[in-house]
Amino acid sequence: MKRVFWTLFGPLILGLWLGACAPGGGGPLAVQIAMSEYQFEPNVVRVKAGQEVRLTLVNKGKEAHELMVGRNVVTHEGRPAGFAQDFFEGISVRAERGGKPIDLKELMEEEEEGAHGFMVALEPGEEPVTLIFTVPSDKVGEWEMGCFENDGSHWQLGMQGKWIVQP
Ligand SMILES: [Cu+2]
């Protein structure tokens, strides 16, 4: 009986054990961020340098929302418009939708005047999108995430969060 148990469940248990003990930077980290009025859920995201991140963005709201990550908010005509320092600069990002690769340009809004940095915008009800990238070690530290839709009003209404890269 014991032997039957291990034959049946041994590989499963071993697999779970290996999965739980995988060292940091091993497997990809799957993160999902839901966007709505006017928040990110969760609003704190922790990733590790060197680890592949699979970040899925879902718009669960009734308005268009976007994700930008960076530091130091810049203004355009007195409205928050993005970050002076863009987290994604120098990071190569792939995108998938429904498990199929897509062109990132589809997700970037028209280059808005005064807009800064890498941004993914989703209309309400639009199919979720997954961004795949590996965070280099020079990005270690704390970053902000934000949505600057509607002339920066989403940011002002609190659509902000923290993005923490651990070494
Ligand atoms: Cu928004």
From TrEMBL:
It comes from the Bacteria. Transmembrane segments: none annotated. Keywords: Copper, Metal-binding. One of its GO terms (molecular function) is metal ion binding. The keyword Protease does not apply. Residues 30-68 form the EfeO-type cupredoxin-like domain. SUPFAM superfamilies: Cupredoxins. PANTHER family: AURACYANIN-B (PTHR38439), COPPER-RESISTANT CUPROPROTEIN COPI (PTHR38439:SF3). This is EfeO-type cupredoxin-like domain-containing protein.
